């Protein structure tokens, strides 16, 4: 992997739950992110996958410092964001931007495209006033939109065009790393391909690092250099995209890979799908030991005893499973 530009060290994000209106009392804690250690290299695309509710979006907002970090550190280019002041975080956001899932909700309906793209330039003072219109036009062309549309409002665009505007806004400050939180899940399949190709081109053209979050491995495998698989707030497998997709090691990853549709009717009819029993446990009261053991077809008593650490598996991957090599 290239030199890390972003490092997460045992990051935890917990949300306390309280009951009562006047006399509040603690009722538990939602462990949305529970000890994640990751690194992203310069120019690398890291795919982050998992079922809905596993903590992917919370992890993204924790990296951006949009939600407070309960424990651990988020280090961007050697600077610890979790221990920094508000001014430090604001300065870091010049190099760390985010594209949200819903392109309509993430754009202000009262602002034109020009105002949307010009706002970060003005807030951070990175562009002289007289050069702002030219920079906005460049950003629109960069994402495949005509500059003549810059005086229009978000409701006048399609979903794919709105997501292009959101991507242009994220690139306005020329960041070093962008977090894309399920940026294609709300779009049509044909538009998804266009946005994925656009992100791939931008990463190569700008040497941009990207954390691409999704719950669909068939989408992630086309864009990622490495894939991290997340389950109930923890990383259970991490490695090169080709290895994770073609030779999954963790039982949960195998179940996800088996759900990827194959564009061949004969193969699709004969292949065996791994269907996991039950639903993911609640992050309020996760099971003891390995969080996946209640649904794992290979679970043993020792899986309930201790949380398996993320350990090297085959030279390229790390996996959190006490039965690694036995199944």
Could you please describe the fold and organization of this structure?
The mean pLDDT is 90. This protein has helices at 56-63, 86-92, 113-124, 132-142, 159-171, 189-206, 217-220, 241-246, 251-258, 265-270; strands at 4-19, 25-41, 45-49, 71-76, 79-80, 96-99, 177-181, 209-214, 226-231, 234-240, 311-312, 318-319. By secondary structure, it is of the alpha/beta class. It is built from ten helices and twelve strands. Helix 3 (113-124) crosses helix 4 (132-142). The longest helix is centred in the middle third of the chain and has 18 residues, at 189-206. Strand 9 and strand 10 form a beta hairpin. The relative contact order is 0.14.
Strand order of the largest sheet: 6-7-8-3-9-10-12-11
**Which structural category do the helix and sheet elements fall into?**
alpha/beta
The low-confidence runs, each spanning 5 or more residues with pLDDT under 50, are: none
Range of strand content: 15-25%
Total strand count, please? 12
What best-fitting shape do the alpha-carbon axes yield? Answer: globular
Mean pLDDT: 90
What is the helix content? Answer: 25-40%
Largest beta-sheet characterization: 8 strands, mixed
In oligomeric terms, what are we looking at? Answer: single chain
Terminal CA distance reads 28 Å
Number of helices: 10
The succession of helices and strands, N to C, reads EEEHEEHEHHHEHEHEEHHHEE
Determine Rg (CA atoms, Å): 21 Å
């Amino acid at each position: 992997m290239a030199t890390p530009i972003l490092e997460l060290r045992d990051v935890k994000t917990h949300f306390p739950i309280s009951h009562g209106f006047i006399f509040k009392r603690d009722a538990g804690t939602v462990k949305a992110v529970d000890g994640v250690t990751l690194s992203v290299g310069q120019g690398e695309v890291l795919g982050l996958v998992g079922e809905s509710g596993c903590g992917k979006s919370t992890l993204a907002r924790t990296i951006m410092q949009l939600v407070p970090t309960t424990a651990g550190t988020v280090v961007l280019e050697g600077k610890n964001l979790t221990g920094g002041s508000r001014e430090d975080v604001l300065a870091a956001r010049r190099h760390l931007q985010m594209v949200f899932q819903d392109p309509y909700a993430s754009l202000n309906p009262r602002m034109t495209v020009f105002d949307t793209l010009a706002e970060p330039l003005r807030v951070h003072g990175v562009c002289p006033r007289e050069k702002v219109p030219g920079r906005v036009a460049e950003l629109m062309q960069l994402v495949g939109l005509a500059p003549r549309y810059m005086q229009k409002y978000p409701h006048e665009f399609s979903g794919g065009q709105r997501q292009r505007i959101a991507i242009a806004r994220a690139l306005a400050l020329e960041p070093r790393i962008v977090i894309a939180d399920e940026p294609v899940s709300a779009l049509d399949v044909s538009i998804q391909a266009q946005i994925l190709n656009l992100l791939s081109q931008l990463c190569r053209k700008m040497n941009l690092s990207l954390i691409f979050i999704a719950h669909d491995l068939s989408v992630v495998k086309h864009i990622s250099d490495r894939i991290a698989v997340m389950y109930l707030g923890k990383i259970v497998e991490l490695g090169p995209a080709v290895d994770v997709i073609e030779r999954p090691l963790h039982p949960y990853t195998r179940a996800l890979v088996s759900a990827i549709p194959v564009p061949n009717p004969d193969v699709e009819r004969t292949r065996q799908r791994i269907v996991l029993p039950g639903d993911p446990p609640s992050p309020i009261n996760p099971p003891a030991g390995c969080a996946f053991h209640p649904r794992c077809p290979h679970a043993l008593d020792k899986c309930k005893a201790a949380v398996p650490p993320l350990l090297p598996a085959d030279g390229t991957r790390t996996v959190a499973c006490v039965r690694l090599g036995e199944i």
